[in-house]
Amino acid sequence: MFLLKVLFPSADAMQMALSKVREQLAELQDAPLELQSALQLLLSENPRMEAAEFAEKPAIAAVYGGFDPQAAAIAEAALLEAGALEVVQE
Question: Which of 70, 72, 27, 23 is nearest to 45 (CA)?
C-alpha cells in the first residue's frame, strides 16, 4: 500500500483542490471503475496534516494512506491537475 504526501501552499488551496477533484469525479460518470474508485478513496480519506516547506516557502502536507499502485497514480494525477504543488508516493 502507498502513502501519498501532498503539498499545498495553504489549507485554503487544499480545500479548493479537493473541490476540483469532487467536480472531476462528478463529470466522470462513464469513466472506468478504477478511476472512480481511486478518486472516491481520496475524497473519503481524512488526511494527517503536517507543516512542510516547498521551494523555501511554508506549505502544508496532507498525508493520505491506503492506496494501491494504480489508485496512487490516479490520485496523484488528479491532485496535481487540481493544484497540488507536489505529490510524493511513499
Answer: 72
Distance CA 44, CA 40 (A): 6
34-58 tens-digit pLDDT? 999 999 999 998 999 999 999 899 9
Which pTM does this prediction carry?
Answer: 0.89
The number of beta carbons lying within 10 Å of the beta carbon of residue 66 is 14
- Helix, strand, or coil (residue 90): coil
Cα dihedral sign, 82-3-33-45 = negative
The CA-atom distances, in angstroms, between 88 and each of 28, 33, 62, 80, 85 are 25, 24, 11, 11, 10
Residue pair 6/70 in contact by the 8 Å Cβ criterion: no
